[in-house]
Amino acid sequence: MAGLQLYDTIVPTLLKGLASLDHVLAKAEEYAKGKNQDVNAFVSARLIEDQLPLSFQVQNASKAAQVAVGRLTGTEPTFFESNEKTVDDLRKRVQKTIDSLKAIDAKTVNARAGVKVDLLVPWSGETHQVSVEQAVLTHNFPNFYFHLTTAYSILRAKGVPLGKRDFIASFLGF
């Protein structure tokens, strides 16, 4: 049996994570509508005072995916402006990120397996040479999941009726 291809290991997982993020944002819209509340109050919501808000969490999940796209394709990442003011804006950003991932050519990604890239360690300023797959699996994925989970947790803490299924179902595909 052949091993997993780089594209098949990474791109579908990012797409499923972004679908999960869109789902929890949609649930926030439903909740606010049902409670006759302003859904856009969630955009600046935080888990705790010194943590960054929902908007930042969504923007940085998107950025983690965009950095992965750059690493996987050998191109400079294209970053979207981080100026979202509404939940609808955040959902549009998620969709743009999904669209950028869907545009990736699998053969291009698979051909980059083993290629060395620079990985900057933000807290030390050190740069390390690692393979594309190592950079994505050990840096982009944890960063991506951190921001997905934090966005989910902010919405849950603000009363949106989310459960584990809301986070996981998109990954399972059913």
From TrEMBL:
Record-linked InterPro entries: DinB/YfiT-like (IPR034660), DUF1993 (IPR018531)
Gene3D superfamilies (UniProt xref): dinb family like domain
Signal sequence residues: none
PANTHER family reported in the protein's UniProt record: BLL2446 PROTEIN, DUF1993 DOMAIN-CONTAINING PROTEIN
Protein name according to UniProt: DUF1993 domain-containing protein
Source organism: Neonectria ditissima
